[in-house]
Amino acid sequence: MKNESLINSYKNFLDNGKTERECVSQIISLARESGFKEISEFNSLKAGDKVFVQKMNKAIALFVVGSEPIEQGMNILGAHIDSPRLDVKQNPLYENDFLVYLNTHYYGGIKKYQWVTLPLAIHGIVCKKDGTSIQVCVGEGENDPVFCISDILPHLAQKQMKEVASDFISGESLDLILGSGIPSKDDDKNEKKDKPSAKKAILAILKEKYGIEEDDFGSAELEVVPSGRARDLGFDRSLILAYGQDDRSCAYTSVRALLDSQASKRTNCCLCVDKEEIGSVGATGMGSHFFENALAEVVVRLPDGYSELSLRRCLANCNMLSSDVNAAFDPMNSDLFDKANASFLNGGIVFNKYTGSRGKSGASDANPEFIARLRGLLDTANVKYQMAELGKVDQGGGGTIAYLAAKYGMNVLDAGVSVLSMHAPWEITAKEDIEQAYNAYKAFLTLE
Question: What whole-number percentage of the chain has pLDDT above 70?
Fold first, then answer.
């Protein structure tokens, strides 16, 4: 491995960025260290200026202004920073037969059975009525408690074991154990004594440690994620085992590539958005107007000033890599892949001409002229890449933010890292691919 510094910083990013807010916070810190300033700090912009625009602390766009008119378009690296997880409901806390639970609603495409009996952590924010906010991160520190979802012991699981995998763990049963109480016995008159409430005891802890009342869950955004740090995988340490590598493997390398690049003729942009795992919806997803609004804030500060036509011409003339992961070929389940059109761990960055499902439903389907230019660019830069699809044609499929960018008329191609065990609590990538993705993104930003 040539670039251990990149790998170590990537793992640190994963450890400290298990939610969208945590990712944006880290990206802003890295950007400021590299000379970027928030858009509100500029009255005007010129070539070489570095600026960022963020939305609701969950989406961010970074720009390095080029010397060419913005109408000539930009080079864009676009990734998403949300990952499959469990979200805490708004009325979540309850006690059931001396155990205290936190009720959840899963987010994104998960295999529900993978989330039971794991050590879990709670990350997020609690917003109080007085306007203050409380940052929450419990389950990551050495002395922190962790949380868990229980499962049935095999001795009593005969019925469960006969059900299909999608059903034997239900969404409503994915509730975290937060604490426990002591069962009380009946007295001599066969009347139950007043028993202490385990739920009240947990609420007292929340009040003492965090200043959180039960009603505050109604205005909280709490995410349940696997507890633990990114680790090297394998005796040769060639792989990385970590939560959230879809799509933070591409987000981090995209951000890092932009920060490590110099201003060129074209304006360069790195876009990190939210909500891809649930359809790119909401104010911070790619389906919103966040990106074009952020770009408008840049355009209005440029010497030529703002016009709707300038903005539209810029968008139509852009080149974009939709920096998103692809399924790595799995030798244990090889029948699900067209091997000749699969991506392999250690094979380099993956170009995916189209995603979607079955009949290319939901795909943007990149133009071959654009792909040819990228192939030539990466060959010249000695960057390793591979061409692939997600799996066999009728096995399923998936989508990215590519089609939402392509609606502007720009060139867009999915290009990212191969991931094994994608969407599982712990995903696998290859260090070689992280480095090659970084090199590819950095080379792409020189495209003219």
Answer: 97
What's residue 397's pLDDT? Answer: 74
**pLDDT score recorded for residue 262:** 85
Q: Residue 185 corresponds to which amino acid?
A: K
CA geometry: angle 60, 313, 263, nearest 5 deg: 55
8 Å CB contact between 220 and 404:
no
Q: Are 268 and 279 in contact (CB under 8 A)?
A: no
Say what the pTM is.
Answer: 0.95
In terms of DSSP bridges, do strands 176-180 and 99-107 run parallel, antiparallel, or are they unpaired?
Answer: antiparallel
From 403, 390, 394, select the one nearest 280 (Cα to Cα): 403
What whole-number distance in Å separates Cα of residue 323 and Cα of residue 442? 12
pLDDT greater than 70 at residue 48: yes
Strand order in the sheet with 74-80: 37-38, 50-55, 59-64, 267-273, 74-80, 319-322, 411-416, 349-352, 385-387
